[in-house]
Amino acid sequence: MSDHKFKVGQSVHYTSGPNGRGSASGGYKVTQLLPPEGEDHQYRIKSASEPHERVVKESQLARD
User: Fold this and answer.
1) Could you tell me the pTM of the whole model?
2) d(CA 62, CA 53)
3) % of the chain beyond a pLDDT of 70
4) Neighbour count for residue 43 (Cβ, 10 Å)
5) Could you tell me if 15 and 24 are in contact, meaning their C-beta atoms sit under 8 angstroms apart?
């Protein structure tokens, strides 16, 4: 199994996908590495403009 592409503390761009709900504009920071779901790694990310964190798949993230 391959390693996570992003690291804790790294700035990333979140793309929610074609059916995604609204998300805060601006960058996100990776706060936690999570176990994969299928073959896609998962992450917990946080935006300074939102009070909550999100759990997202690696395929939904890009380098900021």
Assistant:
1) 0.81
2) 17
3) 81
4) 26
5) no
